[in-house]
Each structure stands twice: as structure tokens, then as C-alpha cells.
Amino acid sequence: MPAVEMHNITKRFGIIKANDAVDFSVDKGEIHALVGENGAGKTTLMKILYGMYQPNEGKIFINNRQETVSSPAIAIAKGIGMVHQHFMLIPTLTVTENIVLGNEPTLRFDLIDLRRAQQELQKLTETYHLIVDLQAKVETLSVGMQQRVEILKMLYRNADILILDEPTAVLTPQEVEELFNTLSHFKNQCKTIILITHKLSEVMAISDRVTVMRHGQVVACVETKLTNQVELARMMVGKEMEGVIVGGNPFISHPVVVVEQLAAMNDKKLSALHDVSFTISEGEILGIAAIEGNGQAELVQVIAGLRKIAQGSIKVNNQVLNDSNRRTLIAHIPEDRTHRGLVLDFTVAENLILGRHYEPQYSKRFLFHQQTIVQFAETMIQEHDIRPRDKDLVMRHLSGGNQQKTIVARELSKNAPVIIAHQPTRGLDIGATEFVHTALLSERDHGKAILLVSSDLTELLTLADRIAVMYEGHIVTVLNAKDTSERELGMYMTGVIKKVA
Amino acid sequence: MKYYKTSLLQLIGPLLALLLSFLIGGIFIFFVGRDPILVYERFFSQTLGNAYGMSQVLFKATPLMFTGLCVALSFRAGLFNIGAEGQLIIGTFLTAWVGFTFNSLPALVLIPFCLIAGILGGAFWGAIPGVLKAKFGAHEVINTIMMNFIAAALVSYLVINVYAVPATIHTPQISPASELPRLDFLVDSLRGSPANVSVFLALTASIFCYYFLWKTRWGYELRALGLSRSASEYAGINIGQRTIMTLALSGGIAGLVGSNFVMGYKHYFELGFSEGIGYIGIAVALLAKNHPLGIILTAVFFGILEYGTLTIGTFVPKELSNILQAIVILFVLITSKLINWWIRQLQALTAIGNVHA
Questions:
Q1: Does B217 reach chain A within 8 Å, measured CB to CB?
Q2: Using the beta-carbon criterion (under 8 Å), do B227 and A343 form an inter-chain contact?
Q3: pTM > 0.80
């Protein structure tokens, strides 16, 4: 019997269809995995079910009754609970206070009856074997424990249908094991679980059925025991590549970038990168393929000087990279273009010298050379067709494509031997994407060493000469772009093949 | 649609706020039993109606320009500097100390010496919370406030126990060589007005800050820091260093207040002379939207309020000035939000229009 049925769900954001006529159904008492690449529409679909988004079309049935889920409050009332990727807890409150928040048992005069809350929660933790110190402040708990608090919060609100959005992304392997035990236990108690993930090993380990999404559509819904990781990976990334557009056989000579045994921590002070070694030659584009959160962001930040190196070394043209030579050696097109790459309230001209403003042609000691800056801005706007053609316009008012063009213009005109491009075309329209691609290829032909990190495998296969695949902070393999396929990359990225090259 | 032209529209906000607050001020005057029109007439004719009144306004405005610039510079770097009061007290005291200690020096040496002492004193006092923020992440709001208390206590100890002229709460007179000329040497009718040439120093400071913010590398980095911390980090800006520098520079400007009060007017340092100029500087900066040239105007406006309420002191209580100032600040905050909202609505409408066109 289906606990949830979603029929013909379409959700548009502007002209983009995040969900395109999606049919999705989950049986009562099953663990159902929802898989797909970043941007495949999994989270959107679940946010619709949880009432955070309203679909443009389609119907939702919960326990065989058609429902309009217009807000999370209604979803909760219908027995749906969701644990988000980013926890929604108040660090300075205790576990009990966090769980009952918004739903507090009260005494007379609206005083909170914490003792009753505590007793109810104690019962709940015993029923589901979810041991948490109820008096502890949330800020003192590990990430795994905090997740447990989120799960308890759902149970406290009597959720029967539990949605978990990439619950293992932040967990250690041991914590993952505990979580899976809990989920199996829920299943025995006849709760329905929807698990959003892109780790295929987890799908195989715990789910009963799996729905695969790609580009906003459901590609397949299969019983887990009738499929395997290889087949799932192929369904996730889609068709084989249909021929590479750009040939370009770069003259590969001496290595410009040499990275040796690099290690770094993430923001939570956990190991994010370990033992990463690679080289990039003159006139070469090295692609990095990885599912989000496997260390590629930290790798870029370490090279760009935004994150400390824990171990290992980075050399450019035989010099160890440090804070003073980095400015001239590295050009960086950052992932977060609006917050990192630009000051949105600066003008186009001011943004075009961001991070280069110290260069002698723009400032002599203290004063800016206003004229050089103006000339440079006008040249860049002309050459890179940044629209509208107005150097004094505030960056905030430019389109995403033109914002990215500004960054690309600035960074490439720096003429640094190394270029890092992190998700350089994400969210751009076709025209701006082509602009960025052409610019990168032309830099390659001028002998630059380029590191291209992208979640768009087509882009990697098209532009890169070699592709390094990262999984859980390691480089798992380095493949020749000509000899590989999305399918093969997908298997390395999802950890199906773990051979270290 | 040229979006950036909307900044002109945003000027309407403060003007509207002024009008409204005078209207409400009028209601208060009515309630204390006076004729608002008569009171306002006297208020404006005594402040703006003659050269003497205007010079008094400039005298009141001068220190507010310094403290307004102090607050605005920090604001531009994303720092909430509440410490102008402490910074100006230290700076002013040092100005006076140099003035009465090195009294054998000639004017050409002593005047710059006094000014530099004021700048350095204020800069030092501003740099301390800067260092605390850069090195330990201690929040500047709390530390600048605390530094105000320390400055007041320190200076009052020094004045009362070490330097005071017996039976007074002020220091000895500074050397005549360190005195700044009053404006009456330019216009004879200003005889008796305390207005002095330090007003030109304040104007210069405003123009300096304008050039500093928009034409220099440090100013650029400072603004980048205030607008986006992560982009500043990306651009390789030394955030800690710039934080210290900004607060020191802000403090230095506040430290110039002594040029007006000590060198130009009283010729000694007196406890309690500031009457909260440092705090009013926050309002001056806020009203000018932290623009150094706007601060000239808003400081003059607050000067009008201060001197104007003195001239109508026989008709209405002095508290009215404070009420009027508070109303102005509240209204500017509210109207700027309203105007911004209004602009966004307009932009949304034109954006929809463009799509359909």
C-alpha cells in the first residue's frame, strides 16, 4: 500500500524545470532511496512533499488521500517529517528544549512543562533505541548526535513518513552504521523512509527500492535487489558521451603545478583531503570530477590560499606556493562568484581590479591610478563583451553571466601561469558558458596550467586533457579524458570502484 | 532602466525625514504651550539669518564633522565604532598637554605638534580595540564602549590630580603660540563668536576621507572589507591589519576635536567639555549615509539644531533639542527603509514590463 504517491509533479523556477512531470511513489514500511546527481531534482521533489515548495502541476496523495501540502506545518500534521542537510537546531538550547520547540507541553500560565517533555522523550528514545543525553546542550554534541536529535524531533511530532536529505554526507563511517541500524529499526516499526543520497553503496546496503532522477525527471524505479551499482551509476549520469567537441592536442611539457601528499581539514576540523598528489603541465587542463563534498572544494581553497595546508606541499614552477607569490602565480575563478569573486556593491571597474588592486599599474603606494583603472575597465568590457557596457554600474545589477564574465576577464588578464576554475559555468546560459569554455581553451593553448573543477561531466570530458576523480578526500584515479566516459567516471565518483591509481 | 540612478531618489528619504521631524517637533512645542511658528522663526533667523549665528553653527558643527567622519570610516569597513567619545577625549587632552607643556616653541612648530599629538592619541585609543578584534576576535562594539569609560576615567584622574589649575577642573592655558585664530579676523561682525579656523581643518578632513575612500588603495580595501568579508579574503586583503588601520585612522580623526575646543576656543582642556559629541557623531554619520561629504551637511544640520535650541532656550526646554535630534534619526532610519522598499517595487514592476515588452 503506498504511503506517498506523487503524480505528474512539475516545478518550474523561472524557465528551468526542476521537476518535470515526476511520478513518485513510496510504499508503507519501506526504505526508498532517491538518487541522482546534483541538480537532478531530488531535493526539490522532497521539498514539495514537505510543503516548502508548491508544485506548478501535479497531485499528491498521502495514505491514499489527495492532499494540498501548502506548508511544512501541514506536512507535519499529515505525519511527514524531514531532516534537512543543514540541521535546524539552536546550539545553546538543550536537546529536550530543541525537540519540543514549537510544540511544548505546558503547565498553567503557559509555563513549559520540561519534566513532562523529558519523560515523553525518554520513552521515545527507549522505543527506538536512539540514545541521546537529553540534558546536553546541542552545541556540545557531535554531528551524528545532532542528526539523532533531528530524527527524534520528527518522531516527537508523530511522523510516520521520514524524509532524510543526504543524511550520511556529514557522518563518519561508524555513525553511518548506527544511522542505518536506526533506520532498519524504524522499518520494523512500520515507518516509511525516503532517503535522498548519491552514494550508491548506501542505496544497496539499506534500501528496498530505488528511484533514479536525472535532469528533473524520473529515469527509473527499481527494486534494489534486482539492480546493481554499475547499472544505477549509468542511469544517474545518463547516456554515453557523444563525441568530444574540442580536439586540441596540447603540447605537454614540463609540469607547472606539482602537488605532493596534500592534506587539509574542512570547516568542522575533520580531515577533508588526504594524500592528494598530482601534476599539471604547461598547456594542460586537469579536470577534477567528484560528487559534492568529497574534498574538491577544500583542494581549490588550499591552492587559492583560503584554507591552511595541514600536510604536504604545492609548488608552481619549482617555487613553493606562499602568500606573497600566490598573487602572481594563481588566477582563481571561484565557485561562489557572488560572495567570493565579486563585491556586489562595487562598480564593474572596481570589481575588475579586485585582488589586483595592489599591482603597481593600478596603485602607486597609496593613490590609485584612476586613468589606468578606467582604461583597463573599458578594454575588458569591450574585449569580453560585459553588458551593459558601463564601468560605473554596480555589479549587483548585472546578470549572472556578465558577473562571471567580469571575474573571468579579471583573472585571465592577470596572465598567471596557473588558473583554477571552480564550477565556472554553473548556472550560466549557453552563451556565457561558451564564452567561458572558449576562454579556458585559449588559455590552455597559450601554455597555462589549468585546474578545472566541475560537477558537469560533459564539461570535463569536453575541456579537460586528464580527469582526476576524487572520492572521500582522495584522488581515486586519473584518467585520460579521451579514453573515459561519464559512466566510468560515475563509478569512480560514487565509490563503486575504489582502486587507487 | 538605469538602476544606479536610484541613488538620487534615495536623497529624498532624509529630506522627507527632516520635514516630518520638524512637523512633529512643532507638535511638541505646541504642547509646551508655545507658538511653533514663532519659535521656529526665531530658531532659523538666529542660526541662519545672520553671519554671527552661522558662525556659531559652524563652531558647533566642527567637532561633529570630526566624530562623524570617525564613525563613518569605521562603518565603511563594517566596523561599528562607538568609541569616538573616548578617542576624542584622549586626543584632545594630548593636544592641550602639548600646548601647555612645550610652551617655548614657536607657533609654526607648536601648532602642527599639537594637532599631531591629538591625531596620535585618538589613533592609539582606536587601535586598541582594533588589535583586540584582529587578534582575538573581540567585538569592537563592546571594546570601544569600554575604552570610552577608561578614557574618561584616565583623563579625569590626570586633570584633577596632576594638571588642574587649583579650584577648577581644567588644565592650565596652552601657549598663545598654539592658539588657532578665530574667524573674526576675517569678518568683523563675528566678534565674540567662538568660531575658529579649525572648521577648515574639518572640511579638509572630510575631503581627505572622500579621496581616501574612493581614490586610494587602502580606502578601496577598507570598503571591500565592509561590503564583503569573503571577497576581501579572496582578494588577498589582510583583514586583521586593515581592521586595526581603520580604527586607528578613525580615532585619529576624532582626536582632532581638540583643534576646535582647545586650540580655537577655550585654550585649555576642561573635563566634561565634550557633552557626548562622540555619540552624536554616530547620528551625524548615519544621517549622511556614511558619506564623508554628506557629513559636512549633516554636521552643519546638527550644529543648527544645537545652536538653534540655545537661541530658543527662553521659550522651550533644552530637552526639545534632544527630542528633535532623536526624532530625526528615527525618521531617517524609517524613511530610508521605506524608500528602498519603494525602489525595489519600482524595479520589479519595470522588470516585469521589460519581459512583456
A1: yes
A2: yes
A3: no
